[in-house]
C-alpha cells in the first residue's frame, strides 16, 4: 500500500522546497536576522530619552552623560565580542548552528534588557544582546552569499540590509508612539519586541539547508552535492552541478596549499598565492569606512542631535527621526536592483560622495546656527534637517549593504567566515568609537564635530576608487581565480578588476568546465551501457 501523498512530501527535505523557493526561505531567515540588527540599532535612541528609564537607572543630569554613553555604546563591545566568537566557532559549527547560538544569546539579552532595574543589570543585558547580534551579523551574510546564485547574490544581501532599515524604521515609529504613553512600558515594550524576531529565527533556521560550500570544505561531498542541486533545482548529476562542485573543491584545495597561518599574518610573514591579507583588509576596510562615515551618529543619536543641535523638542525630534527612517528604507530598497547593474565600486563611491556633501553642508549650516548674534539661526538649523534626510538616503544607496556583502565575496572559502568575522569586528569596534565620542563631541565641539566626518568621507572616496576591485557578476570561484593570477594592488588600470560585467576569461573557463563535465557523464553512460551489454551476453 502506497503512503499518502502528504506524508511522502513531508518526508522530503525542506518540506519539498527547491530552487527559488528554498532561496526565498533562506532570505526570510537572514532578513529577519538583519531586521533585528536594525531594530536594535534604533530602539535605544528612544530609550535614552525616556524619562522613566532615566529615573529608574539614575541617569538624569549632565554629570551622568558619560555613564549614559557607556550604557549605550557597551552594546557595540558585545557585538565586537560576538564577532570574535563567530571567528572562533563559525568555521567549526557551520553557518546554521552558529546563527542558532547567536539567536539564543540574543534572546537571553533581550529578556534581561526588558527586565532591567539598574545600570549594571542593563550593561550585562546590552553586552549579551550585542554578543548574540555580533555572532549573527558575522554569519548570516555568509550563509546567504554561499547559497545564492551569482545573478542575485548582491541583490539578496543588499535587500537584507533594506530589512535592517525596516527594523530600524519600526523601532523609530514604536519609540515615537511610546513617547505618548509614558511610564516603564514606554521603554520596556520596545525592548521586549526584540523577542518576536528571535522567534522567527527559531522557526526557520533549523530546517533550512547548510551552506554547500561549507560542507565541501569539510569533506561532506554527497550532502553538498544534494544541496547544490536543490538550490539550483537541477538533478545531482547535471553537468552544471558537477562543474560547480569541482570548482569549489579546487578553490578549497588551492587555498589550503597556499594558506597563511594567523601567527604569520600577525608577524607580517606573507607569501604570494591567494592574497589572504589583502582580501582581509579590503573586506574589513569597507566596514571601517561605513562606520567612520558617520551613520551611527544618526542611528543612535538622531533625536539627540535634533534636540541639541537643531533645538527641537523631544516629540518633534522623535517624529522627524521616524520620518527620516522611512526615507532611509525607500532608498535602501532602490539600492537592491542597482547593486548588480552598477556594481559594488560605483555604488560605494556614489554613496560616500553624497555623505561627504551632506556633512559639508550640515557643518556650514550648524556653524551659522551656533554663531553668536546671527539672527537667522533657527531657520538655518531647520534647513539642516533636510541634509540629515539626504544623508540617510545617500548612505542607503551603497554604504549600507555593500560593506556587509563585500567581505563575503572577496575572501576565499576557507577564509570566508573568518574574513566576514574580522570585517564585523572592525564594524563594531569603529561603531563603538563613534557611539562613544558622539555625545561628548556634540557637547564640547558643537558644529566643529561635523568637520571630522566631512574629512573622513572625503578621504574614503579615492581609497575606494584606487584599491577596490569589482565583485559583481562574478562567481565566488571567479574571485579565487582572480587572486591566483596576482592582480595589481591599484586596480584602476586593469579592466578585469573594474568591469561590472563578468570578465570573459572566467565565463570561458566555467563553460569549458561544464562541457568537460557533460562529456565525462556521456563517456560514463556509454561505459555503463557496454558493461550491461557484456553482462547480458
Q: Low-confidence stretches at least 5 residues in length (pLDDT < 50)?
A: 1-10
Largest sheet: none
SS summary, helix count = 22
Strand content: under 5%
- The beta-strand count equals 0
Mean pLDDT: 84
- SSE succession: HHHHHHHHHHHHHHHHHHHHHH
Helix vs. strand class: mainly alpha
Shape: globular
Quote the distance from N terminus to C terminus: 37 Å
Could you estimate the helical fraction of the residues in percent?
over 70%
Query: What multimeric state do the chains show?
Result: single chain
Q: What gyration radius follows from the Cα positions, in whole Å?
A: 25 Å
Question: How would you describe this protein?
Answer:
With 537 residues, the protein is mostly helical. The chain is globular, with a radius of gyration of 25 Å. The chain is built from 22 helices and no strands.
Salient structural properties:
single chain; 537 residues; mainly alpha
Question: Brief description of this entry?
Answer:
This protein has helices at residues 5-10, 19-47, 51-56, 65-114, 119-146, 153-178, 185-192, 194-204, 212-217, 221-232, 239-257, 262-266, 276-292, 295-308, 314-370, 377-397, 402-410, 413-445, 449-467, 476-484, 495-498, 504-536. The protein is mostly helical and 537 residues long.
Amino acid at each position: 500500500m502506497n503512503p499518502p501523498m502528504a506524508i511522502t512530501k513531508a518526508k522530503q527535505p525542506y518540506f519539498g522546497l527547491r530552487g527559488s523557493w528554498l532561496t526565498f526561505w533562506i532570505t526570510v531567515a537572514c532578513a529577519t536576522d538583519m531586521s533585528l540588527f536594525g531594530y536594535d540599532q534604533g530602539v535605544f535612541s528612544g530609550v535614552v530619552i525616556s524619562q522613566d528609564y532615566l529615573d529608574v537607572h539614575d541617569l538624569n543630569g549632565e554629570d551622568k552623560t558619560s555613564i549614559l554613553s557607556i550604557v549605550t555604546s557597551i552594546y557595540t563591545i558585545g557585538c565586537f565580542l560576538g564577532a570574535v566568537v563567530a571567528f572562533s566557532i563559525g568555521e567549526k559549527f557551520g553557518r546554521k548552528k552558529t546563527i542558532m547560538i547567536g539567536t539564543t544569546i540574543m534572546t537571553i539579552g533581550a529578556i534581561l534588557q526588558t527586565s532591567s532595574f539598574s545600570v549594571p543589570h542593563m550593561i550585562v543585558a546590552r553586552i549579551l544582546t550585542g554578543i548574540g547580534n555580533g555572532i549573527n551579523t558575522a554569519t548570516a551574510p555568509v550563509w546567504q552569499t554561499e547559497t545564492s546564485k551569482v545573478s542575485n547574490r548582491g541583490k539578496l544581501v543588499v535587500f537584507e540590509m533594506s530589512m535592517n532599515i525596516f527594523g530600524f524604521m519600526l523601532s523609530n515609529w514604536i519609540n515615537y508612539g511610546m513617547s505618548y504613553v509614558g511610564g516603564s512600558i514606554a521603554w520596556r515594550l520596545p525592548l521586549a519586541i526584540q523577542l518576536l524576531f528571535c522567534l522567527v529565527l527559531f522557526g526557520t533556521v533549523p530546517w533550512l539547508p547548510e551552506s554547500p560550500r561549507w560542507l565541501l570544505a569539510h569533506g561532506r561531498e554527497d550532502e553538498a552535492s544534494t544541496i547544490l542541486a536543490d538550490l539550483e533545482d537541477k538533478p545531482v548529476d547535471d553537468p552544471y552541478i558537477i562543474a560547480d562542485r569541482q570548482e569549489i573543491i579546487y578553490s578549497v584545495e588551492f587555498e589550503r596549499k597556499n594558506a597563511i597561518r594567523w601567527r604569520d599574518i600577525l608577524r607580517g610573514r606573507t607569501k604570494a598565492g591567494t592574497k589572504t591579507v589583502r582580501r582581509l583588509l579590503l573586506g574589513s576596510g569597507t566596514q571601517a569606512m561605513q562606520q567612520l562615515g558617520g551613520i551611527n551618529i544618526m542611528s543612535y543619536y538622531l533625536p539627540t542631535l535634533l534636540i541639541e543641535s537643531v533645538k527641537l523638542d523631544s516629540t518633534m525630534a522623535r517624529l522627524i527621526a521616524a520620518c527620516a527612517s522611512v526615507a532611509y528604507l525607500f532608498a535602501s530598497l532602490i539600492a537592491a536592483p542597482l547593486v548588480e547593474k552598477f556594481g559594488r565600486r560605483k555604488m560605494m563611491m556614489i554613496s560616500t560622495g553624497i555623505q561627504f556633501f551632506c556633512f559639508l553642508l550640515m557643518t556650514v549650516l550648524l556653524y551659522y546656527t551656533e554663531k553668536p548674534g546671527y539672527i537667522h539661526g533657527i531657520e538655518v538649523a531647520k534647513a539642516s534637517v533636510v541634509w540629515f534626510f539626504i544623508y540617510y538616503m545617500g548612505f542607503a544607496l551603497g554604504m549600507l549593504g555593500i560593506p556587509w556583502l563585500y567581505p563575503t565575496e572577496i575572501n576565499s572559502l576557507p577564509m570566508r567566515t573568518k574574513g566576514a568575522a574580522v570585517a564585523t569586528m572592525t564594524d563594531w569596534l569603529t561603531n563603538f568609537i563613534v557611539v562613544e565620542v558622539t555625545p561628548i563631541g556634540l557637547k564640547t565641539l558643537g558644529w566643529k564635530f561635523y568637520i571630522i566626518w566631512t574629512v573622513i568621507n572625503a578621504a574614503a572616496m579615492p581609497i575606494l576608487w584606487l584599491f577596490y576591485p569589482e565583485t559583481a557578476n562574478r562567481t565566488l570561484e571567479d574571485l579565487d581565480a582572480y587572486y591566483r593570477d596576482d592582480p595589481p594592488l591599484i586596480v584602476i588600470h586593469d579592466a578585469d578588476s573594474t568591469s561590472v560585467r563578468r570578465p570573459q576569461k572566467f565565463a570561458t573557463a566555467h563553460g569549458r568546465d561544464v562541457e568537460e563535465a557533460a562529456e565525462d557523464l556521456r563517456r560514463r553512460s556509454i561505459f555503463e551501457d557496454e558493461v550491461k551489454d557484456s553482462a547480458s551476453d
